[in-house]
Design a protein that fits this description.
Strand content: 5-15%
Family: Belongs to the protein kinase superfamily. ADCK protein kinase family.
Radius of gyration: 31 Å
Structural class: alpha+beta
Protein name: AarF/ABC1/UbiB kinase family protein
Number of strands: 10
Largest sheet: 4 strands, antiparallel
Strand order of the largest sheet: 1-2-3-5
Distance between the termini: 92 Å
Keywords: Kinase, Membrane, Transferase, Transmembrane, Transmembrane helix
InterPro entries: ABC1_dom (IPR004147), Kinase-like_dom_sf (IPR011009), Prot_kinase_dom (IPR000719), UbiB_kinase (IPR050154)
Oligomer: single chain
Helix content: 55-70%
Order of helices and strands: HHHHHEEEHHHEEEHEEEEHHHHHHHHH
Number of domains: 4
Number of helices: 18
GO molecular function, one term: protein kinase activity
Length: 516
């Protein structure tokens, strides 16, 4: 009974927004021409949708966060608004987390020292005393798992209704987004996994004293609790965050960018939720990263493919970008590469025509222009897109002039993922030589075969008769000159004298062509 009540509740909340969007496509929902609405109306609707996600609780907050990375599904105004979704819900949602502390840590810590600190969509954070030290306890809300499972059932039941009104391309996108969302939120509910990821990232970043990852207390951790070192810091976007520290806003923006690129491209395990509530600055100017529930591990192959994606985007390498998107399974291997290449060239031309290029603009333009090709965004790619868009937003809030792309290029060069411009040209030349060598090596054998066929009269060239013109004759000398240059190149493998003669004849025909 509760399931059906929840289903109707969700349906009623989303119905007005859904009807408005459908009427934009067809004025009378099922038929009629499309209608255009001003940007102000779209922004108002997007804010209403964002508030609805917040009101419906943790599962729908996560849905909104996933949709904020999917410009192929929702319009740009909605992407921007949904990107602001953070894990803030009413404290009573999902029950009192203190009951979990009483059940699991009653004998391990002094519950009288427990003090509430902050709340999120999935958990609540407390401070407590343990062995004479202050620690932080992230505690999952007790009734949350059942609520999430119920809402996942609601979302699965709503999906056929949503896809019925969507076009074929969006049907594919909605289905894979729903599957990926379930995988992501179930990972976030597993606090043992979160503690393990936190330890791994802390170990990876231990050599960088500018970044702080709180240590965990494994004996106190469980599926519902993450116990960690309590590290005080000022929220990174607070007005006074950089008032009395040795690092300024631009330096911090660069540090955030390079730290997240290192996690994803070098270490292979990354924190995927860099919103301002999860980033702080200590009184010594260090960056503190909190809340590792939304995180991801990459295989070595995924690391290589994602590195290739960044490299090709920075270098505007269209062919490499197609390869990277196929390798990451964003595009199917059977996709029409020529058509995709044309679309990607258009994306790059469009972006280069803008005065300002941001990561969000790149992703939005890329996925919007690929709408004619069935594609999916796997969870690892989706989380990396979120890291880029949310992280860039934080960096630009610190420094409005901060440019994500040069910072990314600098990181890739420093870590040897791409070369300097001169090295890149040399690499391209070497690659051309490498690809051409087998062809050049095989030319003598092929030439001998063609000459034998000519001697035996087996080679026939069929052409349609045309009336010769003065232009045709002039072009004929150019063709003959080119032919003798090729012959000289082939003969150079056999006899230098004949090669020199052929080259001389080519020069004669070239002079005649130029003179005429």
């Amino acid at each position: 009974m509760r399931f059906y009540y929840r289903y109707l509740q969700v349906l009623v909340r989303f119905l007005p927004i859904a009807i408005a969007l459908l009427r934009d496509r067809r004025r009378f929902v099922l038929f009629g021409p499309p209608r255009s609405v001003p940007d102000s109306v779209n922004r108002e609707r997007a804010e209403r949708l964002t508030q609805t996600m917040l009101d419906l609780g943790p599962a729908f907050i996560k849905v909104g966060q996933v949709l904020s990375t999917r410009p192929d599904i929702v319009p740009p105004a909605y992407v921007e608004s949904l990107s602001s979704l953070q894990d803030e819900v009413p404290e009573e949602t999902g029950g009192d987390p203190f009951t979990v502390l009483e059940a699991e840590l009653n004998e391990a810590i002094d519950l009288e020292t427990v003090t509430p600190l902050a709340g999120g969509s999935l958990a609540y954070v407390y401070t407590a005393e343990y062995d004479g030290e202050s620690i932080a306890l992230k505690v999952r809300r007790p009734d949350l798992a059942a609520m999430i499972e119920r809402d996942l059932r609601v979302i699965r039941r709503l999906l056929p209704l949503v896809t019925f009104f969507a076009d074929e391309r969006q049907q594919y996108s909605f289905r894979n987004a729903a599957n990926d969302f379930e995988e992501i939120i179930r990972d976030e509910l597993d606090f043992e996994r979160e503690a393990a990821v936190m330890d791994e990232i802390g170990t990876n970043l231990a050599d960088d004293d500018r970044v702080v990852v709180p240590d965990t207390y494994p004996t106190l951790c469980s599926k519902r609790i993450v116990a960690m070192e309590f590290v005080e810091g000022t929220k990174i976007t607070d007005d006074d965050a950089f008032a009395d520290v040795s690092i300024d806003e631009t330096e911090m923006a660069t540090l955030i960018t390079r730290t997240y690129l290192r996690m994803g491209l070098v270490d292979g395990v990354f924190h995927a939720d860099p919103h301002p509530g999860n980033l702080a600055v200590t009184d010594t100017g260090q960056l503190v990263i909190y809340d590792y529930g939304m995180s991801q591990r990459l295989t070595s192959q995924e690391q290589a493919d994602i590195t290739a994606l960044y490299r090709t985007l920075v270098r505007r390498d269209v062919d490499g970008l197609v390869d990277a998107l196929i390798a990451l399974e964003v595009l199917d291997s059977t996709v029409d590469r020529v058509a995709v290449r044309r679309v990607l060239e258009l994306v790059i031309e469009t972006l280069e025509g803008r005065s300002e290029i941001t990561w969000r603009a790149i992703i939005t333009e890329l996925f919007t222009m690929l709408h004619d090709f069935p594609f999916r965004i796997p969870p690892n790619v989706m989380l990396l897109v979120r890291v880029g868009t949310v992280g860039e937003g934080v960096c630009r809030s610190l420094d409005p002039e901060f440019d994500f792309l040069p910072a990314t290029r600098s990181f890739l060069v420093d870590h040897g993922f791409i070369e300097s411009e001169l090295e890149a040209l040399l690499e391209e030349f070497q690659e051309d030589v490498r690809k051409s060598a087998p062809v050049v090596a095989g030319l003598p054998a092929r030439t001998d075969t063609v000459l034998r066929q000519l001697e035996r009269g087996e080679l026939v060239v069929r052409t349609d008769p045309l009336e010769p013109t003065a232009t045709d004759l002039r072009l004929g000398y150019a063709v003959l000159s080119s032919a003798f240059v090729l012959a000289a190149a082939v003969l150079s493998f056999h006899d230098a004298l004949y090669a020199a003669i052929a080259f001389g004849v080519a020069g004669v025909f070239l002079l005649v062509y130029v003179r005429r």
